Structures are given as C-alpha cells and as structure tokens.
C-alpha cells in the first residue's frame, strides 16, 4: 500500500473499523462481519480475509499483538490497529463519502463516517448531496430530450429506474442532513450514553464468546 489509503479496499476499511473497537484475530473479524450483517457490504472468504490482513500488516496499518491457542484449534494471531492505520482509514472515508460513482465504497464509508468529526461528516455528505442533484438534473434533461424525440419507452426504462433511485437517495440525504446537526443526536462512540455503551459491550461479548 503506497500511501496507506490509496490501495485500501472496502474489506480493508471494514477490518480497520473492527480493530478500532478492540484487538481481534481474523476469525473473530469474520464472525462479527456476519453477526452484524456487514456481509451485505463485504463478504470475505478465509482467503480474502487473511490476504487483506496480511497486506494491512505489511503496510504497517495493523500490527500483531499476540498469538492464542484454544484447545486443539489452530493458533490464532491477534492484531491491533496502528496510528497509521487509523489515519489511513479516515483518509479513505473522507475521499469516498462525497462520491456518487462508487456505491459500495460509499456505503462502507458511510458505515465508518462516525469516526469523523460531526461537522466534517456533514460537509462531506452535503458535497455528495449537491453532486447527486447535479447528476439527476443532467439525467432528467436527457430523459426529457429523449421523450421529445420519440425514443421508445423500452430504451429509457433503465434510466427511469435510475432517476427513481436518485429521487429516493436525495430524499434520504435531506433527512440525514436535517438530523445530523442536532447536538442531542449522538455522533461518534464518545458521544454515546453510558447505558448504550453497556448494551454494546454486552452484545459484543455475546457474539464473540
């Protein structure tokens, strides 16, 4: 990885996000990804997970902190995120959060956006909202021009679907951008109430036991 964030994959960012919570071994990471239904975004195999972990370690973004053996099971190496890893993940999220042309990357960035300061997240999402609005305006102009030229419906059906998705995405973004500035809405783990943190801790322990 040349400069940390440049070659990060969505799976690598998810791994870094998990290690921001606590030190883990790859098997635990895979189990948490499935328990939390993050396999909607990334669905690693043993091979892709260990390949990703190896690349992150070689890049200095994570580091080995221990090796465990549970009974007759194979040894499991536990990793921790490094300061360089945390910084690289934030750079990646900042780059992908305002983008509209890489949907998977945006969804992963959105899932990790709570690691950014609230005002920065609002700014980046506002940039994305403006880019979506510009793109939809261009799309509508094209659709209206095609309709005026008598282009048959079957050649426009996919574009009409994309327009409907853009309408829904813009409505969702408007709702989020109305809510995010509210100081009573927790943003980031450090703002979560103590009872919420206790429930999260209990949940994490239940899925890793």
TrEMBL record:
Residues 15-89 form the Transcription regulator PadR N-terminal domain. InterPro entries: Tscrpt_reg_PadR_N, WH-like_DNA-bd_sf, WH_DNA-bd_sf. Gene3D superfamilies: Winged helix-like DNA-binding domain superfamily/Winged helix DNA-binding domain. This is PadR family transcriptional regulator. The lineage of its organism: Bacteria, Bacillati, Actinomycetota, Actinomycetes, Micrococcales. It comes from Microbacterium terricola. It comes from the Bacteria. It holds the Pfam family PadR.
């Amino acid at each position: 990885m040349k400069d940390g964030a440049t070659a990060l994959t969505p799976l690598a960012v998810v791994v870094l996000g998990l290690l921001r919570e606590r030190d883990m071994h790859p098997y635990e990471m895979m189990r948490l990804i499935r328990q939390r239904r993050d396999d909607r975004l990334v669905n690693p195999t043993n091979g892709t997970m260990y390949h990703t972990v190896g690349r992150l370690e070689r890049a200095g973004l994570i580091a080995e902190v221990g090796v465990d053996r549970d009974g007759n099971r194979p040894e499991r190496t536990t990793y921790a995120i490094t300061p360089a890893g945390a910084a690289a993940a934030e750079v990646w999220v900042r780059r992908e959060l305002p983008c509209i042309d890489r949907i998977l990357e945006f969804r992963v960035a959105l899932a990790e956006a709570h690691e950014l300061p609230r005002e920065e997240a609002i700014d980046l999402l506002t940039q994305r909202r403006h880019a979506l609005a510009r793109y939809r305006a261009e799309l509508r102009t094209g659709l209206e021009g095609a309709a005026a030229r008598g282009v048959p419906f079957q050649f426009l059906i996919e574009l009409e679907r994309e327009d409907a998705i853009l309408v829904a995405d813009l409505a969702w973004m408007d709702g989020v951008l109305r809510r995010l500035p509210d100081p009573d809405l927790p943003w980031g783990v450090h703002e979560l109430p103590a009872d919420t943190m206790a429930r999260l801790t209990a949940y994490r322990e239940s899925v890793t036991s």
